[in-house]
Amino acid sequence: MSASAGELVFRGGTIVTLSDDHTVTAGDVAVVDGVITHVGGAYTPQSKDYQIVDAAGCIVMPGLVQAHVHTCQTLARGKADDLELLDWLEKVVWPYEGALDGPAMAASARLAMAELLLGGTTAILDMGSVHHTDEVFAAAEASGIRATIGKAMMDAPDPRIPPGLRETTAASLAESDRLADRWHGAAGGRLRYAYAPRFVLSCTDELLVEVGRRARARGLVVHTHASENKGEIAAVEARYGKRNLLALHDLGLSGPHVCVAHCIHLSDAEVANLAERGTHVLHCPSSNLKLASGIASIPELLDRGVSVALGADGAPCNNNLDGFLELRLAATLHKPRVGPRALPAPAAVRLATRAGAAALGLADQIGQLTVGKRGDVIAVDTTGPHVTPSTNPWSSLAYACRASDVRHVAVDGKLVVCERKLLTMELPEVVRSARLHAPRIFDLL
Questions:
Q1: Which string of b and e fits 77-104 if b means at least 16 CB within 10 Å?
Q2: Which residues touch 263 (CB under 8 Å, ≥6 apart)?
Q3: Tell me, what's the pLDDT at 409?
Q4: What is the pTM for the complete model shown?
Q5: What is the mean pLDDT of residues 81-95?
Q6: DSSP letters spanning 210-251
Q7: Angle 332-333-338 (CA atoms, 0-180°, nearest 5)?
Q8: 236-252: burial string, b at 16+ Cβ within 10 Å, e else
Q9: pLDDT tens, 154-194?
């Protein structure tokens, strides 16, 4: 049967539904025409157009949702090690992004999406660079991933920004609007657009205010960064006389449609604002550790009612896009400070699935295995020695499983990974293209 069969059945797994009562059951999960129609117990296909995949020995669960990634940066993996944020941006990442052309951007995005899908990530919130965002969307369309993507917006007259990333306010807004018109809702709704002002320091007030207005008018997500680095925070306070998230709020950038990556160093007033407004925090533990930015107070944010999702960030600051690694770090990182119950396994798994779906504005479609949701489903093999014995699926997922354990992946009911093989792209060609373009781009710097 083809990967696009009308009925897709994950047969014989342990099913972690991510329901409110933490239901774990056994049996089959069926997806018909992209919609989950059956969860638990045996299922008999209802048509001749069906495909059954073996999930014996697997945990069947919703696909991971990574709510903060930069697929455009993947070719810079290993090129920006051992730097703090502002040096990392100015010395490596911004020059690299400024040098990217269309073919290199396509190669970077395709490589990232291959890694993400093979590791069980089925949905992403992605911030591109200033240019060539069509190539990122095209890669997402071809790969089969569910993606909300925005071009990075950088109109500040800052001499540290390389010429290849400089843009005017009018041009930044016009290109964002064009991309939204072209791609939002494409691929049957699998692709969506987000306005993506990079962070306060790279944007003018005029741009930020207009982004807030346009996002509200069009019903689109806003994706940005804030409060990642103490030097960044000091610069924001010097400009506005207030902290990052309060400045964003005053500019019209807060609320359930706004997603803010990092949020490590927050005042009590900022936390209160996040909780009151419903703004989403995007926690990136590997990136925060590697850039020496700090450790976000995630248990405290959750206790205050703040919505928190997970993301790997980008390959130059991680250096991989493994959602299970972020899940494990989120589950363990806060225990020495808060205590062993700081973030129990089910709560951590929820951050990697349901909370990510909420951040993307897709809580009604993905993040749970319940009848009526879209068929973003993965099967995670628990028969390996590092997971055996797997007696508690929550524990296995939060503390033991790896990206390499993912056996099958479906997005919108279409199988995109089967028996660990990527079906939507030729992986050797994806890797070959990345190896071709990466040195070429860095030769231009």
A1: bebbeebbbbebbeebbbbbbbbbeeeb
A2: 226, 227, 228, 245, 270, 274, 281, 282, 283, 296, 301
A3: 98
A4: 0.97
A5: 94
A6: HHHHHHHHHT-EEEEEES--HHHHHHHHHHHSS-HHHHHHHT
A7: 90
A8: beeebebbbbbbbbebb
A9: 999 988 889 899 999 999 999 999 999 999 999 999 999 99
